[in-house]
Model the fold of this input.
Amino acid sequence: MPARDAGYCGGMQMPPPRGTLSQRVRDALADSSTRPLASRPAPAADDHADAMLSLWMLHELHYRGFDGVDERLEWDPALLGLRRRLEDDLEQDLRARFARSGVRAESAEEIFRIAEEHEGPSLASYVHRHATREQVLELLKARSVYHLKESDPVSWVIPRLGPVAKAALMELQYDEYGGGDPRRLHAHLFALGLEACGLDAEYGAYLPETPTEVLEQNNVMSLFGLHRRLRGAALGHLAAFEATSSLPSRRLAQGMDRLDMPAEIQHYYREHVEADAVHEQLAVRTICGALLAESPGLLDDVILGAWTCLDQEDRIAQHFWDRWGLAAAPSSAGAA
Done:
């Protein structure tokens, strides 16, 4: 399918299961028979992959859905009940990780400090100097799960904000969505880059091989965005991403240039070098600042979201480090 249409044609095929629970979710969606899920079928205690795929599928009903699946299932009580249980487990895990980190802050502006002090394996640094073309292509496949619907999870937050934060978030999102030009939509630019690299630009094409860590990252963004009570975490996550994206995007583009990869995929990352340098100030100082002026009690959630963004990038990077058999990871904060 041409990249101009990639990701914009409705739903997709349901992914293959990764365990008992995701198989049952898949069967329930295919047959529109969800009542058996109300009894809380649970994945094995150590089967995080099964849980994350199940939750991703349930979240996807609120985005573009799946081919052949009744769209009314988006609001099916049994599916919503299972989604809530899986989300509660995930949120509890995220809060426990954050508590163990010991990270604290007195204001939104300290997100800059948290990002600067954060040390973790940097995929961008590795791509810049060392990665092979095959490794970069593998990384692009994993990133496609989010980048082909880039910024959509954050858009859930817009109607839940006061006027100052809402206007600022709309300014940022307007850039992410191409300034009104569908050809400049960031998701579309990424699709063009995939196609130029000889990869499949269809939305969800690489979901079957997506690492569990990437599914978790996508689930967290949906969790934060879909719940009004977690709007602080959603905006903190956004702020940390924007605050750590510009330099890594430059390194990724330079690494792709080193490998003589297509101009289209380099353009996607170069687009983020300047844009995210501006967006980081907007996201941290204006959006999160305005949110906390309205609702000071959300500070802990803002910092939770920011730290979680960085932590999940570490987990994704470690996955690829282990997969590629690398002994030591270049350390640098960055969400790209």
